[in-house]
Amino acid sequence: MNYAKIKMILFMFSTASLVLSQFENFETKMDLRNLRENDKMYFQNFSNEVSDFFLINSFGEDIDFLNIDATLHFIIESINDYNNLKTINAQAILTNHNDFIITLKGISFPLSQIKSISLNPNNHTSLNSFLEYTAYLLIGNELDTYDLSGGNIYFNQASKIASEGKESFYPNGWESRWRKTKEIQENQYLRSAKYHYFYALEVLGKDEDLFMKNVTLMHESIELNKEFIGIDNNTKNFFKAYKLNIIEFYLILDMYEELLFLKNYDIDNKKFYKEAMDKLN
User: Fold this and answer.
1) Mean pLDDT computed over 121-127
2) Strand order in the sheet with 23-31
C-alpha cells in the first residue's frame, strides 16, 4: 500500500472519530462487592467496553457539537443461574456531573451479553438497549439547554426503548424507566427554566436586555414548576448545580422578592438565598 493511500485512510479514520461521538468523557464504575470472588472475573473488561460504547458510537444526526461528560455507576447485585443461563441483576446511577443524576433499578440481562456490547437500535437486547436508553437521556437533557424542549426527539427514543423493554424477555425495571423518562419530558416548566438559565448565562455581560428577559422567564418557569410538581429530585438537582449562578443573576438585577421565593421553595439551599438577600438590604 503506497504512502498516499495510507495517509488517506488515516485521515478518514481521524475525521470519522471526530464526528462520531456526542460524549467527550465517559466513565463506567463498578461495584462488585455483592459477588463471590470467582464471579467477579466476568467483569474484567466490562467498564472499558461500556465506556467505549458511548465514546465511539454516534447516537444521532446533527448533534456532533455535543461534548457530554458523564458517569454510569453499576452496582451488581447478584448473578442467578437457572437452566444453565446466568442472569445479571443490577442497578445503576447515571450522572452528567451537573444537574442530571438518576437511579435506575431493576436492571437484568444475560451474562452472555457482556461479550457483545454494541449499538444496534433495530434490535432490542437487554444490556445494549439499556446503554442506548441512558445515552438518549443524557443527550435529551443536554439539548434542552440549547433550545426550548430541544431534547424531545431523544426523550422519545428513550421512551420507545423502555416500552419495548416492558415487552421483552427481561422486563424488570423498564416500566420504572419509562415513567422516569415521562416525568422528565412532561415537566415543561423545569425544562424551560433550564433553557432560560443557560441563555442568561450565555448573554451575561453581552446583552443586558436579553439577560434580563431570560432571567425573568427562568424565574417564572421556576414558579410554575412549583405549582406543577413541587420540589422533586430533578428540581433539587437543578438548584444544587446552578444555585450560585442563579443567585448572581438575581443580585445583578436586584431581585429581592425572587430570592425570597427561592429561600422558601428550595429549602436545602435556603442559607445561600438568605445571604444574598442580606446583600440587597
Assistant:
1) 93
2) 23-31, 68-82, 85-95, 101-110
89: amino acid identity, one letter: N
Residue carrying the nine cell digits 423518562: 181
For 5-31, give the DSSP string. HHHHHHHHHHHHHHHH-SEEEEEEEEE
Q: Does residue 205 share a domain with residue 178?
A: no
Q: What beta strand segments (E) does 96-247 contain?
A: 101-110
Size of the chain, expressed as the number of residues it contains: 281
Among 156, 161, 101, residue whose Cα is nearest residue 126: 161
Helix/strand/coil for 49: helix
Residue 157 carries which side chain, given as an amino acid letter? Q
Domain membership flag for residue 147: yes
pTM (two decimals): 0.91
Residue 254 lies in a domain: yes
- For range 9-16, the mean pLDDT: 41
pLDDT digits (tens, 9 = 90+) for 257-278: 999 999 999 999 999 999 999 9
Q: Say if residue 77 is in the same domain as residue 116.
A: yes
| Cell numbers 445503576: residue | 92
User: For helices 208-229 and 233-252, what crossing angle results, to 10°?
Assistant: 150
What sign does the dihedral 190-194-200-201 (CA atoms) show? positive
| Predicted local confidence at residue 21, as pLDDT | 86
Final residue belonging to a domain, choices 186, 215, 249: 186
Does residue 204 sit in the same domain as residue 272? yes
Closest among 103, 127, 102, 166 to 42, alpha carbons compared: 127
Domain that holds residue 248: 189-280
Domain count, the chain: 2
Contact 120, 97 (CB under 8 A): no
Residue 17 lies in a domain: no
CB atoms within 10 A of CB 159: 21
Last residue of a domain, one of 142, 166, 186: 186
Looking at the fold, whether 121 and 160 belong to one and the same domain comes out as yes
